[in-house]
Every structure is written in structure tokens, then in C-alpha cells.
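Lecture notes, part 5. Sequence design as translation. It can be helpful to think of inverse folding as translation between two languages: the language of shapes and the language of residues. The source text, in C-alpha cells, appears below.
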């Protein structure tokens, strides 16, 4: 699904002039198609999340005729689990430890998942600053899961992930999903939740599992209240509102 400059501006709650400026600077992932710029929704959300750019809550609204409902982020985290003192001395060994910890279905090849996570990091760090990284696969549909999962790991030793702020990572949210749609929704919801003071504090202080999930549920309640009903635009995709 390709977004226009207008779509991107609305999704990121900025002016079209800002989008064009970022394109000129080569700061935003964009593609030129028939002399017009287009954006991939997954790449745009990854870019916004890594730079802590606020997106409109309307991104959480479901389009008319959408398929199976995506579970709440708190449910995905409950299923994926919260783990403490996870080992590893560098990015690759940390990701290896994370994959070994995850409760993966039998049909998911853990070695394949590990290699895909490594390949994603090679494209660019998933570190978003303040000691937090969000490792995830770029093509989640290949994992054949029945439900999306988010696994939160607190590292025993902070590791350099190449984050923009230069801070070592001690907290990893690893996302795996059965579909691109679920992947985008969870990635966006997580980015939004990490701006909630209570949830962010629970994460940064490595609070208990129950405290982290409870604060996340409260943060999600605000998203539900803020998100209006989405409407399909003429191109057949959700047009984010400001």
C-alpha cells in the first residue's frame, strides 16, 4: 500500500511542506513513482517510531470491512511475556537469547526468526532511544502465527544497538505477527503507548509484570477514546486524520 505526500503529512500530523523538506534532505523513506512521491506504510511507521514523531490517534481506527480484530497490545504482551536479566553481550547474542526465550509455536522456525531479526537490524537500528529497542521482522506474514505476540525483555547488561541517541539498549520489545496489518497496528500502538508517562515509567524502572501490563491497559484506554472511526478514501485505503 503506497501513501501520498498528503497521506504521510496527515499520518504524521505535520505539514506537506515538512514532508517535502525531509524528502529533500533524504531523511524520510520515500519512493518516486511517475514523478510523484509515495511512501510505504510500514517503513513510514518504523521511521516515525524511531524518531519519536507523534502520529495521529486515528491510525488506530479500523477501516470499514476490516477482517478479524487485532488483539490489544496488552494481550499480545501478556501472550509474549515479560522477562528479566536476559543475557547477551552484543546485538546478535542478545537477539539469540530473546528468540530462545520466546514461546514460539512449533511451526515457527526459531533459527529463521533469529536470522530475519538480524537482517532487519542490518537495514537500520530498531533502537528508538532512552535504552529501548523494538526488534521486529519486515515481512511478518512469513511466520504463520495464529496471533501476534510482543515479548518484553530487560537485559542483564545494556548493549549498543546503534540507537540515534547513542544510548545503550537495556529494554527490548520484540514484535512478531501473522499479517502485515497486525504488525503495523501493534508497532503504532507501542509507539503511542511509550509516550504515556505511567507506562514509560513502568518500563524504564523495570517494574513487575503485573504493573507493566496494568499501566499498558490504562494507556490503551486513552487510545481507544482518542481514535475516531476511520473512513476509506477514494484509493481504497484508510486516510489518517489529523
Amino acid at each position: 500500500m503506497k501513501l501520498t505526500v498528503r497521506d504521510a503529512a496527515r499520518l504524521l500530523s505535520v505539514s506537506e511542506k515538512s514532508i517535502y523538506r525531509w524528502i529533500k534532505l533524504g531523511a524520510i523513506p520515500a519512493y518516486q513513482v511517475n514523478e510523484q512521491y509515495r511512501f510505504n506504510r510500514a517503513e513510514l511507521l518504523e521511521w516515525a517510531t524511531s524518531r519519536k514523531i507523534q502520529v495521529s490517534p486515528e491510525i488506530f481506527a479500523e477501516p470499514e470491512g476490516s477482517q478479524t480484530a487485532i488483539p490489544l497490545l496488552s494481550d499480545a504482551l501478556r501472550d509474549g511475556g515479560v522477562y528479566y536479566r536476559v543475557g547477551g553481550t552484543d546485538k546478535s547474542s542478545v537477539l539469540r537469547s530473546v528468540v530462545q526465550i520466546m514461546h514460539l509455536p512449533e511451526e515457527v522456525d526459531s533459527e529463521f526468526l533469529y536470522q530475519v531479526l538480524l537482517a532487519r537490524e542490518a537495514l537500520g537500528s530498531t533502537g528508538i532511544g532512552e535504552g529501548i529497542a523494538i526488534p521486529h521482522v519486515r515481512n511478518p506474514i512469513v511466520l504463520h502465527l495464529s496471533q501476534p505476540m510482543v515479548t518484553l525483555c530487560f537485559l542483564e547488561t545494556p548493549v549498543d544497538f546503534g540507537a540515534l541517541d547513542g544510548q545503550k539498549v537495556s529494554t527490548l520489545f520484540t514484535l512478531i505477527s501473522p499479517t502485515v496489518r497486525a504488525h503495523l497496528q501493534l508497532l503504532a500502538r507501542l509507539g503511542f503507548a511509550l509516550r504515556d508517562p505511567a507506562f514509560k515509567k513502568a518500563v524504564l524502572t523495570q517494574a513487575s509484570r503485573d504493573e507493566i501490563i496494568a499501566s499498558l491497559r490504562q494507556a490503551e484506554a486513552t487510545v481507544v477514546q482518542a481514535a475516531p472511526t476511520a473512513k476509506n478514501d477514494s484509493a481504497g485505503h484508510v486516510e489518517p486524520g489529523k
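The translated text above is only one of many valid answers, since several sequences can fold into similar shapes. Confidence is low (pLDDT under 50) at residues 62-66, 227-242.
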